[in-house]
Amino acid sequence: MINPVHLRTLLAVIRHGSFAAAAQQLGYTASAVSQQISALERDAGVELFQRHARSIVPTEAAQAMSRHATKVLTDIEALLAAASKAQDESRQELRLGIFPSLATYVLPRIMSNPTWTRLGIELKISVAEPGQTIQGLRDGGELDLALVYQVGQSGLAWPHSMRRQWIGDDDFRVVVPSSWRFSPGATVAAEQLSGMPWIVHHPGTADAVVIERLFASCGLHPRVVAHSDDFTASVEMAAAGLGAALVPELALGHRPDGIAILDVPEIRLARNVFALLPGGKGGPRVDLFLELLSDTLRETLQR
Length: 303
Description:
Blueprint: H1 4-16, H2 19-26, H3 30-44, E1 49-51, E2 56-58, H4 60-90, E3 93-98, H5 100-105, H6 107-111, H7 114-117, E4 122-127, H8 130-139, E5 145-151, E6 163-177, E7 197-200, H9 206-217, E8 223-227, H10 231-239, E9 244-248, E10 259-262, E11 270-277, H11 284-302
Parallel strand pairs: 3-4, 3-5, 7-8, 7-9
Antiparallel strand pairs: 1-2, 5-11, 6-9, 6-10, 6-11
């Protein structure tokens, strides 16, 4: 069996006219080049060079072999390139944009689901708020799938070329400090919470506008003691006794001591969770992921 490395060495020796010059170009020693040529002569059963004290002369056999060696090495490179390309194409990848609470409490459960792990699909994840994720879809097209939420009819917008698929609803819950002496799960009228200290969204955001209108419609006028768009921070501040907060169910995946969750019938609001597919495209891996996502989200919210 002819060694392709020896063929490449043969071409270098013929091109440079000496073992030493070929060795310098290939990064070998002159002795290693001489040994490779001797091994090629043994394998081929022909003499390739006439060796003289200060020079070498390629034989006709060497010239003939060099002409065929060029094609053989080109074919080998094409073979390796084709194999590498096939491996890259078989390595499935899903580029995902996702908002923080979904990434925190739902995504890890999907990634550990045996149905998903058996597929061997590599996830590339970008965690950001919906506005940032959608902007990334607009600018670069670097995502296969974006998971976003919309509160009411707030001003979240996306290109018409994207297909939107509803995944589920993440209901908001009223969280108050345990020190307020409400029984967990108690049904409370909104007016009972009016004038109490509240932790609310920063004013001016689309979500804040929706919530402000909802509060106003049911006569709830909060005494604002903190602004926070980080739901985890809002829950922790409520647990510390700072005030009440309106947070989505997903943000309660970790429930610290010191809070009570109330049922306030006048406050019915949800984050509608959607998948956005650039260009309306899906595919088996996307469809499976969305199916698992919908099921896992529902199970998470029912816990």
